[in-house]
Amino acid sequence: MITLPLVWLVSVLSTIAAFALAQDTRTPFAARLCLCGFLLTLATIGLLLGLRLSFDATWAARVQPVVAVMVAPLAYLGFSALTQDLGANWRKTLWLNGVPVAFAQLAILVHVPISADIFVLAINSVYLFLIARLLRRKADDFVHVAGFVAQSR
After folding, report:
1. Is the distance from CB of 46 to CB of 7 less than 8 angstroms?
2. Of 4, 19, 15, 120, which is closest to residue 62 (Cα–Cα)?
3. What are the boundaries of each domain within the chain?
4. Distance CA 140, CA 116 (A)
5. Which residues cross the membrane (predicted)?
6. Distance of alpha carbon 138 from its chain centroid, rounded?
7. Is the confidence at residue 35, as pLDDT, over 80?
8. Mind listing the pLDDT tens digit for each residue in 52-61?
């Protein structure tokens, strides 16, 4: 019997969810872009983990932290985009959130004498706190997207 590792299944499901979200034009573009990026980075991490576990791909272990640093910031930016009017402040928000991620990725790639796990843990901890701060917002602070209604011809 052929078995499919769980990480491969999570990758496929995350990719399907990203594809479905990308097609939903009712959600603001910036939120769709960041949340699709979040889902695709989850899919990529699952794929890399599957390659490491199933095929002993050692190169995947070096790439995985670089991708893992982007997961939480993309989730935060996606949910944050649902709460903003995305004017001039959005570019500033992208810069403020992109620079620390770029520095962490650079530090991982140049092999500083600190474990890559420290960078991944630090970035994800900061963004977990920022996502938790979004929970204090009221429901009316978020963009409301109408539910799907099937149209008859």
Report:
1. yes
2. 120
3. 6-138
4. 39
5. 6-22, 29-51, 63-82, 94-112, 118-135
6. 23
7. yes
8. 888 888 888 8
